[in-house]
Amino acid sequence: MDVVVDTRPLWVILLSRSTRFLKIALGLFVYWAILAMDRPPDLPPEGQRALAVFGLCVIFWALNVIPLMITSLLAIILISWTGVMSHEEAFALFGNSAVFFILGAFILAACMMKSGLSTRMSLVFLQRFGHSPRTLLIAIFLLNAFMSFFMSEHAVAAMNFPIIAEIVAVLRLRPFRGNYAKALFIALAWGSTIGGVATLLGGGRAPLALAVLEQVTDETPYTFLSWMLHTLPVVLTMLFVGYLVITRWFPVDVASVKDAEVALAQKVHDLGRTTLEQRAIGLVMIATIGVWIVAGHELGLANVALAAVVLLFLLRLVEWRDVEEYVNWGIILMYGGAICLGKALAASGGALWLAESTVGAWAGSPTSVVAALSLATWLLTEAMSNSAVVALMMPVGLAIAENVGLAQSLIAPIIAVPAGLAFAFPIGTPANAIAYSSGYLRLRDLIFPGMLMGFVAWIVFNLAANFYWPLLGSALAG
Amino acid sequence: MRSPVHLKLDLAVYGVRLGEELAKERIFSAPASARDFASRDVELILPEDIVARCPVGTRSASKSPYLLRNVDDQFVIEDDSGERTPVGVVPPPRFYNEATTAGTPMWQVGTVHAGYLSIDPATTCGFAAKGAACQFCTMQNDTSATGAAPRTVEEVLEVVRAAFDEGAAEFVYFNTGYFDSDDGGFAFLQPYVEAIKKHFDTLVALQIHPPKDNQWIDRTYAAGVDALSYAIEIHDPVALAKFCRGRSEFIGRQRYYDALEHAATIFPSGTVWSDLIVGLESLESTKEGISALTDMGVLPILSLFRPLDETELREHAPPAPESVAPVYAHLYQAVRDARINVQFMRDLGYAITPIEARFFAGEDAKLDVAVSSFYRSKIGSRAVRGLSKLRRRLRVKTVSDSFDSSRL
Fold it and tell me: Is position A339 within any domain?
């Protein structure tokens, strides 16, 4: 048991602990205040109640009062108890295909990790390309980005962290001294983060956004490929910008990575030959991605994911206990509740009233709405869970879009992509937290270059939305 | 009339003779443990509730100017001028006559000293095993326990239960020898500490040697230890190397101080202490040691050197009690200046605590004495235990807590 003893004065600790009660009280107050306010004539009674639940959940999600998934469950309970939806309707939203798509993607990633395939890919890639300090840095950056195309970015960062830590150890790099170790850990975090927004597999944000979109508009406008096409320019540009920022902020200051090469070669040697199991899982994974791209729309993304899972079990490539160990079940609950809340807000008229009465006055054009929504989403995601940001921004964004004539279908990438671009704070995303936990980074090593990255990403995203998306047939004005 | 603490010092150095009427009384035939000289002493309660342990039946005690007598059903200490001081005599607890389920006599597992149940589950000291035992320690020639298995957690729990049920002890004090390990012996003691904390609402004090890594000190606190000592014994490095070769050679004086300094930032004020023996180095050096400890927030506990018959230093002359008064006065002042809480370390029969040192500084310390009385009361003791638990709960975080609180 590793322990940390907090040596701050007791009154400071007590004060910081008591903030939890203040946060709970704040959430309850917001809930009560919205219910108790005089209802505006254009706000339906169900909308008022849905907004009260939304307000409570926003406080709980933003301040992390209770685990995110438990807040989601609370949302379902309250939506049902306040009569915004029947409990059958509320719980039925758990059966959303996005939830099962995420589940399938998690199980596929679990198979890759359990079989050692993903670790093998990392080691072989780094051994193949990491011959000099600069190429090793680029290899780590691109490896994490590429793997996050088809695995959760959090899992990629966690999986590759021990490899980077070992490289840093064999190079005898000291914490806080020199740049190279910092550069490697930031490459790990930022590579995962940037890669994570590329496809529907890099995290739960995109599937969640699409699920809320589908519930509210009955539209399913994106295929696996079309989503990638929308995000790829941002991803490629940010990979280039990220490399520049890392190497300018932390100039490479080691002459050789020979020891790391030797260590990587030894690790690859220890892995032995690729096993039949790893080859089979690799083939299933490639086939699944192929079907998602070619026929995902017709067959259904979730169906394809689950069919691949069934195939893995038929081939006895995975066992249930592996799935139980590797799958983040909490996120499934989180998404079920978030989808339910989004639907309740939209169906009750609460989201529309909120959008009209807050940003309706100044949201003049689709361009300004994209800029404002993406900016708000990016700033929020630096401070809170990016899934929670999607959950709270999607209903509002959809209502605003309807108001200003912005294509509602675009709200999904407008929210989901910036929600994944947290570069600056350890609490923004687990990838940052994992890099920071190395002990090689000071907070300022993440914050200053991270804020620059976030700002550049916001500009690049807006340029893409305004000038590149129309080329795909996704003009902002709907 | 001498102050009770001056009398305590005299009794510690000279011991006490028993009046003829007491020689056969059971209370003066406490079981002898080779590793616990204190259990062969008699424990007296002097005026103002000062606890004193006095050698009886030793070479020096047979020449003591003090005689313990029972006059009209009242125990008194009579000096050679005939002056009598009424005292109380603490009888050995009844559980000393009992055995654990495994058959070990309970007094071999734990002995009681003024409310503390003192336990050494290891039964051996690594310094002695390496031929580098402290020269004043009875363990140096004790081979009776060499290779003996440590006490089991169950045995220790049985003895603690027996002592608590009888009301003979209120707290548990683990006192072990040197362990040749990075953790300083805490990894060995941890299961005992955790078991006691799980089964009893009590405070646990620990005297061990410093670990190599301060993280072990944090773990010691997190595991439930309420008070901690790394006993340096001697401040002067030359005298330390001479009398305590093991401490000097295998750990090093600086490591004691570094570990104590860190511990003082982790544990509550007044619960980290270090013993200094008065009489094995110059008094000036002891004073410097006191200042060094108090400057880092550590409470010095001063015991007076006693030449025990079975040790190498049996011929080493103890200091004259009257010569050491300035050292104790310095102790009181240094602790007071450093604002260290003096309430936790009390009722130590073998040493002079800072609050007792007030007699040498000519101070009343009325407030401290009043608070001390509150701490001794049932409600005070309960409050101390509750606050100790609350403090730990607030201060200790496990790394898994941090993971739990991380976001999705």
Answer: yes
Min Cα distance A103 → chain B (Å) is 15
Which of A1, A2, A3, A66 is the mutation pick for testing B, counting most B CBs within 10 A? A3
Counting every residue written for chain A, the total comes to 478
Q: What is the CATH number of domain B94-388?
A: 3.20.20.70
CATH 3.20.20.70-classified regions of chain B: 94-388
Beta-carbon count within 10 A of A300 CB? 16
pLDDT at A1: 54
- In degrees, to the nearest 5, what angle opens at C-alpha A395 toward C-alphas A391 and A400? 140
Inside any domain, residue A426? yes
> Which chain B residues contact residue A64 at CB under 8 A?
405, 407
CB contact under 8 A, B219 and A1: yes
Establish if A314 touches chain B: CB-CB under 8 angstroms. no
Q: Residue A412's pLDDT band (boundaries 50, 70, 90)? A: very high
Question: Which residues of chain A are within 8 Å of residue B265 when distances are taken between CB atoms?
Answer: 7
For residue A432, the cross-strand partners are none
Nearest CA distance, B169 vs chain A (angstrom): 30
State the residue range of the domain holding A420: 17-472
CA distance A24 to A331: 22
Higher pLDDT, A109 or A145: A145
pLDDT bracket for residue A250 (50, 70, 90): very high
Total domains in the fold of chain A: 1
Segment A293-316 mean pLDDT: 89
Residue A165 lies in a domain: yes
Residue B331, pLDDT score: 94
In a domain, A107, yes or no: yes
Name the packing angle between helices A276-299 and A97-115 (round to 10°). Answer: 170
Q: Are A331 and B408 inside 8 Å of each other by CB?
A: yes
Task: Return the higher-pLDDT residue of B275 and B407.
Answer: B275
Query: Who among B395, B399, B408 is closest to A330 (CB)?
Result: B408
Query: What CA–CA distances, in Å, run from A134 to A88, B37, B222, B395?
Result: 57, 68, 44, 43
Residue-wise pLDDT tens digits, B301-350: 998 888 777 777 777 888 888 888 899 999 999 999 999 998 888 888 88
CA angle, A208 then A340 then A426, to 5°: 45
Structure tokens, B382: 């309960």
